[in-house]
Specification:
With about 650 residues, this protein is an alpha+beta fold. About 25% of the residues lie in helices and about 30% in strands. The chain has 4 domains: about 80 residues, Immunoglobulin-like, CATH 2.60.40.10; about 50 residues, no CATH class; about 270 residues, Gamma-adaptin ear (GAE) domain (Immunoglobulin-like); about 180 residues, von Willebrand factor, type A domain (Rossmann fold, 3-Layer(aba) Sandwich), CATH 3.40.50. Helix 5 runs antiparallel to helix 6 and helix 5 runs parallel beside helix 10. The longest helix has 21 residues. The termini are far apart.
């Protein structure tokens, strides 16, 4: 080949390389659209759904305005966007925004007009004096108001339109979490807790991240995030309902600490061995359930479940709004068209008579009770009860009474804005059931199809774990998560104390962060005892065991618990050689601590979480771990573009 041709090709290669470098956009080519939403009177509108659509690519991002009417879209590629603001009862509005290297932030102000028909209904309600007085976000009773501004604070049960129209739409509630601290292994050698197979927190956290928002700190329950995923544990022996798995290795976020992984694997149930089911669908059809991510999604989710049921199974449907009613008596599950028709006819409207609905559902379940069968109520709700039994304590007492008759309770949360997470978690726990959050149809498939047996069929109840640490090997320890599942050490052997349930095929995972005995790190000190001296058994110094896991459980219809024990020795396995189970669960825990901005997060970073998660991804049959990795990447980008 002639030298000139070689020279020409060489120059072309150089030019092509320079072009590629020039076109490789820096990761900072992202912009922000933010602003406020008001009504025409100048009142801030929370709960407004905003959609930013790129006019070229067609890609959309969604977010929701907060209690001050403020909204923000982060991590938007440069370009032209149409931003639409929507709120039931108002006229939607669209504004344009331009993002470029010269203008990385666009600010929009929306003023939504209340529709005339709504205004007429508002006037009528004002005349009747049904507007609620609200102090500090808590309804204090019904009081006469003289201005339309008060309508944004009315009770959802009295509102002419869904709660999404009012400022009380954005009243999500989460119970405060006080993270577990490090405990001295000499003074506190026993750690006792109830297992948790709920997954609601993870799905709810995902909902926030997918709308380009960080979740509320107290929405992040790390144990539920870890247990959203199944793990590859050995199957139990035929005589036991589950097997115990243990592993110890380095702690990713603190190299001077160790991390302990404890797992339970529930036994599988073959289809021919599944007991017949008596299921009562208890469905909230109140006005607040109208949005697409509530009642319409609920109908699709329950159709997925019905498709998994057989001729031995039966389904009833109880609904509640202003009042409770039976819309489908107990029906063989193979009559799917009849069940689907009943679901399709459901419409949203009215208040939320949850207490009456629960009472009717238990009545229907008892009337169709199947001895030795799976008798269960599945409650689907956006979280609020405002007519009838309304306090959490009243609901808990009612449910505790009914569970003793062998009727269990599963709760599915839907939607956003008036979501009452803490209440739903409590009543699911007390009902010997589980709690899930359904944010899309794929999550419904996970709960009702992929994990159906674990969701519906209990193989062990009142499952408690007690870990005894060897103080000659452990200076201090911290249970990661399970803050609202802690038990007193005396509760472990007390068969009257309620604990968690384990479903068929379910896995349960718990992690402990441990400070080695030889560490010079200071830990919280308990004052010296005046009348006692704490002594260590000399055998503990000679033992290789770092801890012993003790587990108690009852059969689904049992009254007396059975005990299992298994010790764990530290073989000084490095983190790099730990199992995929270990690495992935550690990645989820580290991610949870970052989202909570935990004081124990140590050297945690999104980069480290991604590295661990990739190493622990495994086969990932359903793609759940891949989705987790994408959520971490989203938060990493949010962290880059957020102005902290």
């Amino acid at each position: 080949m002639p030298k000139k041709l070689w020279f020409g090709l060489g120059m072309l290669s150089i030019i092509f390389g320079l072009v590629l470098l020039m076109n490789a956009s820096p990761v900072k080519d992202f912009g922000i659209i933010k602003g406020h939403v008001y009504d025409t009177q100048g009142n801030a509108l929370p709960g407004v759904i905003l959609t930013a659509k790129n006019v070229v690519t067609g890609l959309e991002s969604k977010t929701i305005s907060n209690q001050n009417g403020y909204f923000i879209f982060k991590n938007l590629v440069f370009g032209t966007y149409k931003v639409k603001a929507e709120l039931p009862g108002t006229k939607s509005m669209v504004l344009r925004a331009e993002l470029s290297s010269k203008k990385k932030t666009a600010t929009l102000i929306f003023k939504l007009e209340v529709l005339p028909m709504l205004a007429e209904k508002e006037d009528a309600l004002l005349d009747k004096g049904v507007v609620s007085a609200v102090v500090g976000g808590v309804v204090s009773g019904v009081a006469r108001q003289t201005t339309k501004q008060a309508l944004y604070r009315m009770r959802p049960s009295e509102a002419p339109y869904p709660a999404s129209h009012y400022s009380q739409f954005n009243t999500e509630e989460y119970d405060r979490i006080y993270e577990n601290i490090f405990l001295d292994a000499l003074k506190n050698p026993l750690s006792t807790f109830s297992i948790d197979v709920d997954t609601a927190s993870y799905a709810n956290v995902r909902r926030f991240i997918n709308t380009n928002q960080y979740p509320y700190k107290d929405a992040v329950r790390i144990e539920e995030m870890i247990n959203y995923f199944s793990y590859d544990y050995p199957l139990p022996k035929k005589t036991q309902p589950f097997a115990i798995y243990t592993e110890i290795s380095g702690c990713p976020w603190n190299p001077d600490h160790r991390l302990i992984h404890i797992g339970l694997q529930g036994k599988m149930l073959e289809s021919k061995h599944l007991p017949p089911s008596n299921l009562v669908f208890l469905l909230d059809v109140s006005g607040s359930m109208e949005p697409a991510n509530k009642l319409p999604l609920l109908k699709k989710a329950f159709k997925l479940l019905v498709n998994e049921l057989g001729e031995k199974d039966r389904v009833s449907i109880v609904v509640y709004a202003g009042a409770a009613g039976l819309v489908l008596p107990s029906t063989p599950a193979n009559q799917k068209d009849k069940i689907f028709t009943a679901l399709d006819r459901l419409r949203a409207g009215g208040s939320t008579a949850g207490g009456a609905g629960i009472q009717l559902a238990y009545k229907v379940a008892w009337e169709n009770f199947i001895p030795d069968g799976n008798n269960r109520i599945i409650l689907a709700i956006d979280g609020d009860f405002n007519v009838g039994i309304s306090s959490t304590s009243e609901l808990v007492r009612t449910i505790e009474d009914k569970r003793e008759k062998g009727i269990f309770l599963t709760i599915l949360g839907f939607g956003m804005g008036n979501y009452k997470d803490g209440r739903m978690e409590q009543i699911a726990d007390k009902g010997n059931g589980n709690y899930h959050y359904i944010d899309n149809l794929l999550e419904a498939k996970k709960v009702f199809v992929n994990d159906m047996r674990g969701t519906l069929f209990t193989i062990a109840k009142d499952v408690k774990i007690q870990v005894e640490f060897n103080p000659t090997k452990v200076k201090a320890y911290r249970l990661i998560g399970y803050e609202n599942r802690l038990l007193k050490k005396e509760d472990f052997a007390d068969d009257t104390k309620d604990a968690g349930e384990l479903g068929a095929g379910h896995t349960v995972t718990a992690l402990y962060e441990v400070i080695p005995y030889e560490s010079k790190e200071e830990v919280p000190v308990v004052g010296d005892l005046k009348y006692q001296v704490v002594k260590i058994d000399p055998k503990a110094y000679r033992s290789k065991e770092i801890l012993t896991v003790k587990l108690r459980y009852k059969k689904p219809d049992g009254k007396k618990s059975q005990l299992l024990e298994i010790p764990l020795a530290d073989k000084n396995i490095a983190l790099a050689k730990a199992s995929e189970n270990f690495k992935f669960s550690a990645a989820v825990a580290e991610f949870g601590m970052l989202l909570r901005d935990s004081e124990f997060k140590g050297q945690s970073s999104y980069e480290d979480v991604l590295k661990l998660a990739q190493q622990g991804k495994g086969q990932d049959r359903h793609g759940y771990r891949t989705e987790f990795i994408k959520l971490v990447e989203m938060c990493q980008l949010l962290d880059v573009v957020s102005s902290k």
